[in-house]
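hey so i finally got around to running the thing on that chain from the lab meeting. sorry it took forever, my laptop kept dying and i had to restart like 3 times. anyway pasting the input first so we r on the same page abt which one it is
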Amino acid sequence: MKMLKGRNIVVFSDDWGRHPSSCQHLVKQLLPFNRVIWVNTIGMRSPRFSLYDVKRSFEVIGGWLRKKQEPEVDVLPVNLKVVGPIMLPYNNISIVRRFNRQSVRHTLMRRLAAEGMTNPLVISTFPCTCDYVGDLGESLYVYYCVDDFVNWPDVNLDLINTMEKKLLYNCDLVLVTAEELRKIKRSPEKPIHLLAHGVDSDRFNIRRDPDALPEAMRKFQGPVIGFFGALSAWLDFELIAALAAARPEWSFVFIGPADTDISPIMNIPNIHFVGKVPYEQLPAYAARFNAGIIPFQVNELTRSVNPLKLLEYLSLGMPVVSTYMPEVMKYADVVSIVRTSDEFLAALDVALADDDERKRQQRIEKARDNSWQAVAERFGQLVQQAEQQKGSPYERTGGVS
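ok and heres what got predicted. didnt touch it at all, straight out
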């Protein structure tokens, strides 16, 4: 397969650089060959009176007030521009929704014209961008569905459901990251294609070197049971607390920002929070883990989750224990998948007792079969097929492929 080349691309997704999301990994593969405008948006949740939401609101407003609506040039990859249109929360209010549409369209049309970018390929990971289909003169509008947003906590579910149905109907191509999402989002109007997550296996395939461990990871004695990623509402805090109580001699270490209330596990002596670390440094921190865990709640939301961290754990060669998710079952030969706290604890006991070099290499090789480059090449193939079917302006002018 060939990488998509010579394109103008507009992306609606999580703010660039906030989290190493699947969309950012995909776009990084495309950046050397294409020009990209990344749109930082307000997301889907209406803010509440919580510390996290207040802090996040000030961050967004600060971005609007600064003279530049993008990070400094030297921290952005080549070919990438980041814009932050002024947007208001509470899309359920019709006048707010109309304002947001006009603001986004005005900002992007000006930037596209300034950059000489026409017929853009639009990629969106958010249902709330349903109003922008057809507004940007796009060659193709892609809905890259990475979660079952209609089951997300703290969102207006009726509104998100309505928006997603509109987006599914009007967009040109639907890609999903899990088989369960393909079942849930199926539509008679158009086929839905699976585009599962990849991994930067070379970045994560490192050996533990005690002398190279970051200072924050050197203090832990005994086995370290680790988790990295956002500490979000779908974590099973009751499970985590039970595990920590059952094995007080183990250190349970969490790396990443908290975007929900983590008070249920805050004061447990052998649970430790390192906080957010730069993605480039994450493998060095996680190399101290003796096992990686994915302690998600089992519910309608997580049934369709494809945990991005799974392949990263495997690339590190460590044992992995996860609660049950259909997408994780694809890796049942190298991952312990459990349904109860007792099973989780037993699986960790076995993982620490029976790990060896053969199993480590098996995990690494399993992850290596799923590179982000291969995902990006598959993405390009699906885009070109959809453009041919649509007869898009880009396809008709015979653009670079």
